[in-house]
Design brief:
This protein is of the alpha/beta class and 325 residues long. It folds into three domains: 116 residues, 2-Layer Sandwich (Nucleotidyltransferase, domain 5), CATH 3.30.420; 145 residues, 2-Layer Sandwich (Nucleotidyltransferase, domain 5), CATH 3.30.420.40; 40 residues, no CATH class. The chain has ten helices and 13 strands.
Length: 325
């Protein structure tokens, strides 16, 4: 009898994109998927599961599933996750697998950005920005739109710059007005584009990375690492090489898949994965304010065919207990 292929699935659900990574028993990437979340995390997770099912080899068996990202708890409930892990740990684990001696991880996504400090293979510090858009991918998307170009054109155009203009990058409002001013002065588009790349990097280093000791090797991951202009701007600002690993855009999903493999090996029991039929389930979410105490927590809940599947979000576990099996 032919031996079946064990697969560990990692799902990273962010505000802008949702990523899937499938690893085999040797932690090699079998397949990866990168989708726009579009404000519909449930629908996109279900869509992703359908696509994963099509891409898996016929002899593959899902042995474990892990979720990470801003909607990790929601995704975990939907798919029946064996492990739910925060983004910092997931990103760090993936970086360490790729570059074992990594000391600094720069991660920039659509709506947030992070820096992770690793010393001796252990996360020692981190910083996050979830408030100011000027240090995230949405900043570049918006400015590319203003310049009537696609975000895919942004990096190559930035690399053509030989005299970048200084753009005020403290926030998107200042950057936009300054960019328009520079256009009116007749500066080349390429120089404005690279100026915007430098503005994002300055914003990141002065906010997210403020007070952190950035040591090489430096790994740059997340969707924004596709942009060669940003990579160049980081290397110039830090005066050292910045490594962009293969599959940098799905590193969170890879990391949580690695952690899930480790977890399932330790546990030695079967997966809680609900199966690919979840992709066809009638799921919806809502929230309400708990009035059981003065904390007034907002409780999220997900329904399957009209019945409460799970609730979470409170400082205590009163609602989690109410729906536990």
């Amino acid at each position: 009898m032919q031996r079946k292929m064990d697969v560990y699935l990692g799902i990273d659900v962010g505000s802008v994109t949702t990523k899937f990574a499938m690893l085999d028993e040797d932690d090699r990437l079998v397949h990866a998927l990168y989708l726009r979340t579009q404000g519909k995390p449930i629908a996109i997770v279900q869509q992703g599961l359908k696509e994963v099912m099509k891409q898996l080899p016929s002899d593959a068996v899902i042995r474990g599933v892990g979720t990470t990202g801003s909607a990790r708890y929601l995704a975990g409930v939907i798919v029946g996750a064996d492990l739910v892990k925060n983004e910092i740990t997931s990103q760090a684990v993936a970086s360490l697998q790729c570059i074992p001696d990594v000391q600094t991880v720069i991660e920039i996504g659509g709506q947030d950005s992070k820096i992770i400090m690793i010393r001796g293979g252990i996360v020692t510090d981190f910083g996050m920005n979830t408030v100011c858009a000027a240090g995230t991918g949405s900043f570049l998307d918006h400015q590319a739109s203003r310049l009537s170009m696609s975000i895919e054109e942004f990096g190559p155009r930035a690399l053509q710059s030989n005299k970048p203009v200084c753009i005020a990058g403290r926030c998107t409002v200042f950057a936009e007005s300054d960019m328009i001013h520079k256009q009116q002065m007749g500066h080349r588009v390429e120089d404005i584009v690279y100026g915007l790349c430098q503005a994002l990097v300055r914003n990141y280093l002065n906010n997210v990375a403020m007070g952190k000791e950035i040591l090489p090797p430096i790994v740059f991951q997340g969707g924004v690492a596709f942009n060669e202009g940003i990579v160049r701007a980081f290397e110039e600002a830090l005066e050292t090489k910045v490594i962009v690993p293969p599959h940098h855009e799905v590193m969170g999903a890879i990391g949580v898949a690695l952690l899930t493999h480790e977890e399932m090996t330790i546990r030695g029991d079967g997966t809680k994965f609900k199966g690919f039929e979840v992709s066809e389930a009638n799921l919806r979410t809502s929230s309400f304010e708990c009035k059981a105490c003065p904390n007034m927590c907002e409780i999220a809940q997900v329904f399957l065919d009209g019945k409460v599947l799970a609730r979470w979000g409170g400082r205590c576990d009163i609602w989690e207990r109410a729906t536990s099996n």
